[in-house]
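Let us work through a complete example step by step.
Step 1: write down the sequence.
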Amino acid sequence: MTKLTSEKHTVNKSAEHVFQFLCDFNHFEPLMPDKVVDWKSDTESCSFNIQGMAAIGMKFVNKTANSRIEIESSGKNPFDFTLFVNINEKTAESCEVEMEMNADMNPMLAMMAKRPLSNLLKMMVEKLEELSF
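Step 2: predict the structure and record it as tokens.
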């Protein structure tokens, strides 16, 4: 099992606001890098392609109000994974957000995918910080 974790980023929105935003996959597309194409989503699941790499599907499996969202791989993916979005309230109008991924990859795939996946988590948290939603 390969575990990846983003840095914690402060988002100038309440934990409740960030949680509600991230509980709908229709809001995830702006958090994705330019290499993501063929985005399809509804409130509970999404699928997309990463140019030159793979097709990815995800679905929500557990949501803990205003603090944690658990997402799992869904459909045909190159590997199974679980993605956790951790939201920690700092003040009434700000929170810290961190993303963790546990990926079930063979050592060769882990060696090739670790850096791009780490960059993806980093980018998603940074874009969340920059969005005005």
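Step 3: interpret the result. The chain has two helices and eight strands.
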